Structures are given as C-alpha cells and as structure tokens.
TrEMBL record:
It catalyses: P(1),P(4)-bis(5'-guanosyl) tetraphosphate + H2O = GMP + GTP + 2 H(+); a 5'-end FAD-phospho-ribonucleoside in mRNA + H2O = a 5'-end phospho-adenosine-phospho-ribonucleoside in mRNA + FMN + 2 H(+); a 5'-end CoA-ribonucleoside in mRNA + H2O = a 5'-end phospho-adenosine-phospho-ribonucleoside in mRNA + (R)-4'-phosphopantetheine + 2 H(+). Its EC number is 3.6.1.17. Belongs to the Nudix hydrolase family. Residues 1-141 form the Nudix hydrolase domain. One of its GO terms (molecular function) is bis(5'-nucleosyl)-tetraphosphatase (asymmetrical) activity. This is Bis(5'-nucleosyl)-tetraphosphatase [asymmetrical]. The lineage of its organism: Eukaryota, Metazoa, Chordata, Craniata, Vertebrata. GO terms for biological process: AMP biosynthetic process; ATP biosynthetic process. Pfam families: NUDIX (PF00293).
Length: 148
C-alpha cells in the first residue's frame, strides 16, 4: 500500500512587479525540513483517518507554515500527483495550488521545519533538489502565466 500525503504549493504576488511582468513577481514558499537531509519542500503531510485529501493539504499547511485556509485562495484547475519511493516504499503526494491573500502574511514554522523562503521560480527549482518537484514548480509557473 502506497503512503499517501497531500499539500499545497503556496505562492504570492509581489505588489512591485509591473503589470506587464506579473509572473516575474511570483514567489513560491518552500520549507526546509529539520530532519533527514534538510530538503526543501512545500507544506505537505500524511492523510489522517476520516480526512479527505484537500482537508489534509489545508491542515498540514496550517500546522507546518501557520497559514489558515482563510488566508489562502485555492486556484481552480491545478492538481498534481507525484509518485516516488521513500525508504523502498511507494509514496503518492497530491498537490493543489494556493495563493496567499496578503503577500506579507507571517509564516510560523512547526518543529518539523527549521527555515522557510519565498523564492522566484529559478531559485525555487535550485532549492527543490528533486527533479519531479522542479518540473512541478515549472508547470505551476506556466499554468499561472497562462491565466494572466
């Protein structure tokens, strides 16, 4: 049985970006784990019994980054599943896309993470070491560009 986790790719739009370059003003939130290899990842976690996938994504985002569902806008039309092995067992992670309503919202980390960064696409891809995560971030960025 595959391990199942869900999370949100959180982004913000910086006010200072000129309207013609809106996508240049987009930054993605990555959290650095305080365990293992200290990798960088969007907020995510395992599905609890009785919880649906999207509830899990919002709960984990609140627990790991201190962001309430009311502070976020879920972006319709984007959902991505990643599949990869962890400790020899298959894992499925489902991500949705969400924008913080206020780009100055404070991030409050749990003990699971030791740092966070808001990063432009290029830097986010450098921090996210896994190829499938890099590909997903690029895909999200293209999706947001196509909506402008």
């Amino acid at each position: 049985m595959a391990v199942r986790a869900c999370g949100l790719i959180i982004f913000r739009r910086l006010q200072r970006a000129p309207p013609s370059k809106v996508t240049e003003g987009i930054e993605y939130l990555l959290l650095q784990t305080s365990y293992g290899t200290h990798h960088w990842t969007p907020p995510k976690g395992h599905v609890d019994p009785g919880e649906d996938d999207l509830q899990t994504a919002f709960r984990e985002t609140q627990e790991e980054a201190g962001l309430q569902a009311s502070q976020l806008t879920l972006i319709e039309g984007y959902k991505k599943e990643l599949h990869y092995p962890v400790h020899g067992k298959p894992k499925t992670v489902i991500y949705w896309l969400a924008e913080v309503k206020d780009c100055n919202t404070e991030i409050k980390l749990s003990e699971e993470h030791q740092a966070f960064r808001w990063l432009k696409l290029e830097d986010a891809c450098k921090f996210a070491e896994y190829e499938d995560m890099q590909a997903m971030l690029k895909e999200v960025h293209q999706f947001l560009c196509s909506k402008e």
